[in-house]
Amino acid sequence: MPYEIDKPEEQWRAELSPQEYHVLRQAGTEPAFTGEYTDTKTTGSYSCRACGAELFRSDTKFESHCGWPSFYDPKDSDAVELIEDRSHGMVRTEVRCARCGSHLGHVFAGEGYPTPTDQRYCINSVSLRLIPDATAD
């Protein structure tokens, strides 16, 4: 699928840190409970670290205790792309940024999560950048 932002892999490699490149462009995973946003409660929006597209809002983030930031819904349904993933001997649904195609994590559904959507978007912190909301003084 053609993406709005389409760069050669050499350019992505030059713009991203080695860990960011591994996760975002090679569908890697950061180790559980190591990401900077796993326990963050800051109010704001989460954007794609590769292209800056707004993906999730903090009001849909919840404590899933899975080791990665979890959200029950993207900001807009067209902000992410869902792809069947049959790697590692299982069937899952991969979540990618719809703007640049970068790997974000996986979504799990129908597992009785205590959320309005019964879904858990399990997203790598390294795939995201938190933009805190401005606070009123």
TrEMBL record:
GO biological process assignments: protein repair; response to oxidative stress
One annotated Gene Ontology cellular component of this protein: cytoplasm
Source organism: Streptomyces palmae
PANTHER family named in the record: METHIONINE SULFOXIDE REDUCTASE, METHIONINE-R-SULFOXIDE REDUCTASE B1
Domain MsrB: 9-133
Catalytic activity as recorded in UniProt: L-methionyl-[protein] + [thioredoxin]-disulfide + H2O = L-methionyl-(R)-S-oxide-[protein] + [thioredoxin]-dithiol
Protein name: peptide-methionine (R)-S-oxide reductase
Pfam families, alphabetized: SelR
Protein keywords: Metal-binding, Oxidoreductase, Zinc
GO molecular function: metal ion binding; peptide-methionine (R)-S-oxide reductase activity
Gene from which this protein is expressed: msrB
Cofactor(s) it depends on: Zn(2+)
